[in-house]
Amino acid sequence: MICGAWQASGFDATLFRAIAQGDAAAAAAAAGAWRHARDYGPLPGPICWAIQFGSLEMVNALVSSGLPTSETYDPGMDDSRPTGVVYQALASGHPEIARLLVEHGTDADAAYLLRYAVRHGDAELFAFALKKVPAVDAKPQGYHTTALMDAAAAGRMDFVTALVSRGADVDAPPDLPAPGDLVENRPDELQVESPLAAALRGGHVDVARFLLSRNAEPGVGGLDAALRMGQGDLADDFLRRGVRPEGSSLVAACSGNLPQFVSRFLAQGLSPYSEDSSGDAAADVAFRWHYGAILKMLTDRGAKPAVFFLKVGTVNDDRVNLRDLPDVKHGKVLRKLSRGDEVQILKKTVEEETISGRTSVWYRLGVPYGDVGQGMQSPDVNGWVFGAYVDVQ
Questions:
Q1: Could you give all domains of the chain from N- to C-terminal order, each with its CATH number?
Q2: Are 299 and 283 in contact (CB under 8 A)?
Q3: Pairing mode, if any, of strands 342-349 and 306-315?
């Protein structure tokens, strides 16, 4: 049927029939008449057709016969993607054909080949592309991270060491794509700030240590990742390099069950009420994972563990205090709530307490994570209120 379509377009179907039948010798013999016929209209050309069959022998026979490799193919998803035969070979899962085509002089972006090799763990293509790429940190169209960041995220120490030896920037951050840009990266790949952070996020401690040995900027994000993984020695390395722990670091130390770091950070003045960027508090983490020693350190300093409690409530009194902490003595009043205000409850403390003769838990109010601007209340209603003043629906 396909051969018939080419014949109807004015082309002899002999070459395409030979390709379809896997007869490389016959295809090479028939290719001579096609050396200058490059306009295949909407149909794939001979090399594209051979690539579809995944035959390295066939493609080699065609290009060795002198058939031009300048034909293009329809990528089918986005016309902003590369359309040459090398990219078709990669998109079809045939990197060996891509290497062959480049060796025969076919134009291709070496940075794209390098990125494909890293993403697919293809050591042969990686070594091939690394020799040809002029700048190892180059980002091909659609990619907003460097090859080193991808290699670090994948834990490929062999790729990482080779890239660094070629001068890759160990601190290169991702680019933030503009609206409408082609984005080949996964969303999570754009949320890390460096190759070191990418390695730690993937749990690749050996890669992280290597990057630190090459003077990668450590940063508090790296410290937190090391703590979450329970890698105390690596966390110490970050601290020796001058990284200052933040509230998120205390939460991370709780997550990694590292009481020695929790004690150290509390002694340095970090608040026992510390939270990370997602709103998870240190005491909440310790309570959730039954880390008793850590929980005692925190509660001895006034922290009150809380659990998720997604409910809607209504304020039942006038001028009710919304505080930054669930504590009358130490909690700063942020604003007043009025009778009848509807509020979104996110958490409640585990233990009840009695205030002014009324016994209840504390409720953490706020906009649900990821729902800012769409919830039932203003984002500035974010804090703690004593539960006796809220009727839960």
A1: 2-214 (1.25.40.20), 218-303 (1.25.40.20), 306-392 (2.30.30.170)
A2: yes
A3: antiparallel
Which letter, b or e, does each residue of 116-139 get, where b requires 16 or more Cβ atoms within 10 Å of its Cβ?
A: bbbbeebeebbebbbeebeebbbb
Residue among 333, 319, 320 nearest 386 (CA)? 320
For residue 203, give the 3-state DSSP assignment. coil
Residue 359 region, left (φ>0) first, then alpha (ψ -120 to 50), else beta?
Answer: beta
pTM of the model: 0.73
Contact 314, 341 (CB under 8 A): yes
The angle that helices 95-103 and 56-64 make with each other, rounded to 10 degrees, is: 10
The region, left, alpha or beta by phi > 0 then psi within -120 to 50, assigned to residue 339 is beta
Neighbours of 45 (CB within 10 A): 26
CA separation for the pair 375, 367 (Å, rounded): 6
3-state secondary structure of 293: helix
Which amino acid, residue 17?
Answer: R
Q: What is the CA radius of gyration of the chain?
A: 30
How far is 158 from 134, CA to CA, in rounded Å?
A: 20
| Closest to 263 measured CA to CA, from 291, 229, 237 | 291
Q: What is the mean pLDDT of each run of 10 residues along the chain (393 residues)?
A: 42 68 76 53 69 86 80 56 79 90 87 91 94 92 87 96 97 78 63 84 93 93 92 95 96 98 98 92 97 98 95 93 94 93 93 96 77 49 93 93
Q: C-alpha angle 358/362/363, rounded to 5°?
A: 130
Q: Which residues pair with 390 in a beta bridge?
A: 315
Q: Alpha-carbon torsion 288, 291, 294, 297, what sign?
A: positive
E-assigned strand segments in the chain = 306-315, 320-323, 333-337, 342-349, 353-355, 358-360, 362-365, 383-386, 390-392
CA distance 236 to 214: 17
Residue identified by tokens 């940063």 is 219
At 187 the pLDDT is 59
Residue 4 has what pLDDT? 42
Which residues on neighbouring strands pair with residue 355, listed in sequence order? 358
